[in-house]
Amino acid sequence: MMKYNLSEPWLTLDKWQKKVLKTKGNIVMRSGRQVGKSAIISVKCGEFAMNHKDKTIMVIAKVERQSQLLFQKILRYIHVKNKDIIMGGVDRPTKTRIKLYNGSIIYCLPAGDTGYGIMGFTIDLLIADEAAFIPEEVWNSVIPTLAVTKGDIWLLSTPFIKEGYYYNCFNDPTFTSFHQSSEDCQRRDDDFLAHKKATISKAQYAQMYLGLFVDNLKRLYSDELIKKCCILKRKPKEYSRDFFLGVDCARMGENESTFEILDGTHKERIIQIENIITTKTLTTETERKILQLEKQYDFNKIGIDDGGLGVGIFDHLLENSITKRKIVALNNASRDKDKDKDTISLLKEDMYIHLLTLMEKGKIKLLNDDNVKESLRCILAEYPQDHKNKMLIWGKHSHITEGIIRACWLIKKKKLSIEQEAKELVCSGYFGMFFFGVGIIPASQLLF
């Protein structure tokens, strides 16, 4: 197996990467994970910036976190190759800009939902990381920034669904397309790929590791639904509320854990309070973070996946006197029996569908947070073509949604007193009508 220099990947380029480096004009790339697509684009961008005067380059992704990953690789490459070309002092590199002494500037911005913050630029080169996950409205805002310069577009991503600007670029003759499977990568880990192939669906493996567009996939949460629900701003914590915590621990090979805090005081009006992401943390640090949040919010229940790396955290919290009556195992592989039917369904899919129902019925409001929206947008429903197997639900950036669905499931299962149940009916505004003398009075008009 080929050795790979992680700190200086340009020293060990694959043949396909060398071809990308030499290609001129528009480029669209699709690949499996960890094949080196961002590595080669960072090299190509660095060379373009250093060898062309007075050029404006824009690096975008759906969220800031993603765009920063590629941006930092570009900065490192330029620093290693020619650090003296990088301006210093007040013009030194920032999180969003690299200025070079030859007059070229590299910007890094999140695209968000509309691309509004990018519309004022005139650019010579647009680079979009995880382009498949960028909303269509963004392209309508961003592409015109290249009109005057007739600049180039470089798109890189793992595939998503068979629609939209990114997908259409593969049939556009003005783009040179590249496809690279994880199985063809010279640095592949065969044991890792074999494990993934055995534990996830064929469609999921085809999309995430073979870099293929798959027919029987549809988004679970539409843009319209996300826009309708993700409207909240963060606000100070209120007291005497019923808080629930959903945790998704970083899996093997992934860097992020997420902590989703929801106010479930009223089951018909659920409110997301906070979305917290930690990166590259040990399980002991994740455990401490849960205890810290418990001290701050005094949760009704805490939901965690006790499979994989979460099992150690769950076991420790189960032994802790503070959390032992609050911690609940919500393992994606466990099953939940349907009381009305003689069937057993996967709990993971039940939790995802429950969130969908809450969103469609207007019973939950979520944070207007790009990371939350990105996670919801990437969730896919896989419909088996033989119609015999159950629908599967998954997504590349699912960790935030995984935390949200666990907190929502805990709220669904929470027990209420008779008085609380009555108040829930009133607060819902549409659960039944009450008779008083002559006529019918809507429950929403009653006050306790």
From TrEMBL:
One Pfam family of this chain: Terminase_6N
Name this polypeptide is given: Uncharacterized protein
Species assigned in the record: marine sediment metagenome
Highest classification ranks of the organism: unclassified sequences, metagenomes, ecological metagenomes
